[in-house]
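quick one before i forget lol
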Amino acid sequence: MQTLRNNFRFSPRSQEVLRSTHKDLQAVVCDALGLSAVDFTVLEGRRSADRQKELYDSGATRTLNSRHLSGHAVDLGAWVGGSLRWDWPLYEKIAYAMKAAAARLNTPIEWGGDWAHFRDGPHFQLPWTAYPIRAHVQDEEAL
């Protein structure tokens, strides 16, 4: 059983967004919240192709083939003092908790902050190699 270092809890909105993602990713995110030195919210989970195109057109992403489309990715936001913060050191702390939770659960995870190009601090995803997308994503049993 996990020993919580904090009293962080997900809001109903974060819980709803998280439910749109793969069950293994849900488990990692939930475990990480208990391990994290920084409170965080779930900003985005599974998203539509239209939403992905909107983000692509705005420059917020560089791909139309995102892991978000299949529910294999999540964007987390640092929640400090009742507001969303974008300070990079906060995302490093969240990433530390996410990686620790992933290791505890034996679930591979990738952090957008580790990418050489277009570093994306809020983004975490299940790797393509370990979690390939089936032909009909809508029918994926884990979602």
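fyi The two ends are 25 Å apart (CA to CA).
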